[in-house]
DNA sequence: TGGGAATCTTGTCAATGACTAGATAGTCTC
DNA sequence: GAGACTATCTAGTCATTGACAAGATTCCCA
């Protein structure tokens, strides 16, 4: 896999890393392929070869994001076997991988039908639903799953946009609390 | 408003309306001031006078959106006096005023500290919290408010991004159902 | 060793946001 | 009703960007 090519070597990885930094700093809209090329020290058309166009770059980031999310959900379930902690992990992912999260749920910016994206998204979706029947005794599990997803996704989104100003610096603790409101122990 | 040769007459309103159409069609990122100017039949710099820059235009849209949201929440509470129906109205607003909603929760695109925006946002926030104590018997009302906001905001966001594909064409009915999961009658 | 493929560069084009200066219309005052 | 003042819109310009095309350099493999 070591690609000592031309002047740079591992341009694809370098551009992806630079894109994550740039998105974290300025949001998905504040990223330009030319700036990423400058950061990587290559010509302005260098990144194009690896991603085709800007949407291609964001597609790669979305796929990577869904993979990371699925991994995080798997780990949370394995560690606690508590459905609510899977939700907390969802929020934790959004905060810790803000750039990925911001891209993932803006399908107008990339190619949502990309096979890699679809596969990882399905995997994440499956992992998110795992264990929903352990807490939703009387209710429809499918509906409970939608409610749970909505709750943690909404909390994460509101937190990231700065709408929840009256919360102390422990978003995951608050996420755990509201998960308890939805699914009482 | 009859069109004049030089002066448009009602350019500010025309640009705002064109912007809503364009955002509904292509998202907030797919809007250009020059295209809006073309749609309104004025020169490429015409809209600048009314909004300063692109962020100024989106600021006006955000303020208008928060005002419309606050109105919708007021009406829902007045009509039903049911806190859960206020949440359903939140979802209904997001669907019926998608362009506004898409802008409102992307503060990186406009000036979130604008006085008009802040005032209407506070009003909407107040209206959203009204009645939360009628359903949150044992729990902390503040926490219950955050949970409710997260739930409906997350559901609306997921619906608008196309993430909830397995729901029939009645998002507000589903919203009502998950509000019932969070706050059982 | 030679040729094809992968990788990167250089050059170009239209579109855009932002800025400046100027032209025109509406309004107010006297 | 005339001039002055202000609001509104036009015309021109510039740097930046995404996308594309064509060429140069390096890698890989038979």
Principal-axis shape of chain A equals elongated
Separation of the first and last Cα atoms of chain A: 49 Å
> Count of DSSP helices of chain A?
9
Biggest chain contact = A-B, 37 and 37 residues
Task: Give the topology.
2 copies of one chain form a homodimer.
Chain A lengths: L10 H16 L6 H8 L5 H6 L2 H27 L2 H14 L1 H7 L10 H15 L11 H20 L10 H12 L3
The first copy, chain A, binds a DNA duplex (30 and 30 nucleotides) through helix 2 and helix 3.
Structure description:
The structure is a homodimer of 185-residue chains. Chain A is mainly α and 185 residues long. Chain A is built from 9 helices and no strands. The longest helix of chain A is centred in the middle third of the chain and has 27 residues, at 54-80. The model of chain A is unreliable at 1-5 (pLDDT under 50). The structure holds a DNA duplex (30 and 30 nucleotides).
Quick synopsis:
With 185 residues, chain A is mainly α. The first copy, chain A, contains 9 helices and no strands.
